[in-house]
Amino acid sequence: MQSQPTFAAMTPIIGAEVSGIDLSAPLDSSIQRQMDEALLSHQVLFFRDQDMTLDQHKAVGRQFGELHIHPSARGPEGHPEILLVHADENTKRTAGDKWHSDVSCDPEPPSISILHLHTLPATGGDTLFSSMYAAFDALSSEMQTYLDGLTAIHDGGPNYRDRAARLGKVDNKQYPRSEHPVIRAHPVTGRKGIYVNSTFTTEICGVPTDEGKAILAFLYAHVAKPQFQCRFRWQRNSVAMWDNRCVQHHAMWDYFPQVRSGYRVTVCGDAPY
Ligand code: SIN
After folding, report:
1. Residue 247 in contact with ligand 1 by CB distance below 6 A
2. How far is the CA of 114 from the centre of ligand 1 (A)?
3. Residue 72 near residue 173, CB atoms below 8 Å
4. What is the atom index within ligand 1 of the atom nearest the CA of 115?
5. How far is the CA of 226 from the centre of ligand 1 (A)?
6. Beta strand 16-19 with 6-9: parallel, antiparallel or unpaired?
7. Distance between CA 185 and CA 147 in Å, rounded?
8. Distance (Å) from CA 101 to ligand 1 centroid
9. Atom 5 in ligand 1: which residue has the minimum CA distance?
10. Which residues have C-beta within 8 Å of that of residue 185, sequence separation ≥ 6?
11. Catalytic choice (102, 106, 155, 243)
12. Which residues have a Cβ under 8 Å from the Cβ of 264 and sit 6 or more positions away?
């Protein structure tokens, strides 16, 4: 019998700190259910002092579904489902240092991401999370109605090619490019959230170009408002687990040239609707 976990809300809107769960051990079904429910309501969960191997990390992800393989980054030897998250004194651009939902350019973008960091700078390197439910709820009903019928293009090419260019490499690979609703309904909760982000979304379909650009600029500023956010201060062996279907995140790269390093496991999701 495992001890009962506790989930302490970080803000009334988003985020909870979890105690009493050891992610390196298989979770019994009642604890897994409590964690699933907490993730659905708080949208992002934070755990401390989790000493996990890569296999244990992948096992945590598999409890949510099949693991996603990143279209641009190769995992460590023997672990294609692991994404290395690393920055040091040689880094020209870090992953995730703009608001985004992970790999939203995929036709079926990831649902849950689980990030485990083992090396942290002395200060800095926090991750910010913003609730897309709260951002949608804060719009006027007229704006909600206008956006609800629209779709947008999410293109991996510009983002991933820019990363290669900063390393002085030419990247001719084809990356996923998909059309998704601007407002998506969460497949489990049914709640609506904004689903465009400044990392991957390039245009709104079916409206004049300048109108689409103005709407995207408005939404990018809107989703970044502090009232929708929580901010996580990492320690060695902290884990953050977030739901990309209703959350965007932004990894602060304010610690150059210090090292920040760890691994992400990402779970496959469904086509947004
Ligand atoms: C990411 O998954 O986008 C990176 C998040 C982080 O490094 O905090």
Report:
1. no
2. 9
3. yes
4. 2
5. 18
6. antiparallel
7. 13
8. 10
9. 251
10. 191, 192, 273
11. 102
12. 82, 83, 85, 113, 114, 115, 116
Residue nearest (by alpha carbon) to ligand 1 atom 7: 251
**Cβ(87) to ligand 1 under 6 A?**
no
Catalytic annotation present for 249: yes
pLDDT digits (tens, 9 = 90+) for 80-95: 999 999 999 999 888 8
Q: Is 1 helix (H, G, I), strand (E, B) or coil?
A: coil
Question: Residue whose CA is closest, atom 8 of ligand 1?
Answer: 251
pLDDT in tens, 161-171: 887 777 778 88
Catalytic residue among 57, 100, 245, 260: 100
Cα(127)–Cα(198) distance, integer angstroms = 16
Per-residue pLDDT reduced to its tens digit, 219-257: 999 999 999 999 999 999 999 999 999 999 999 999 999
Edge-first strand order for the sheet with 229-232 is 229-232, 127-131, 247-251
Taking the C-alpha atoms of residue 194 and residue 219, their distance in angstroms, rounded to an integer, is 8
Q: Edge-to-edge strands of the sheet including 238-243?
A: 6-9, 16-19, 44-47, 238-243, 112-119, 260-266, 82-87
Under 8 Å between Cβ of 269 and 36: no
Residue 145: which H helix or E strand, with range? helix 141-148
Distance CA 250, CA 256 (A): 16
d(Cα 1, Cα 111) in Å, to the nearest integer? 29
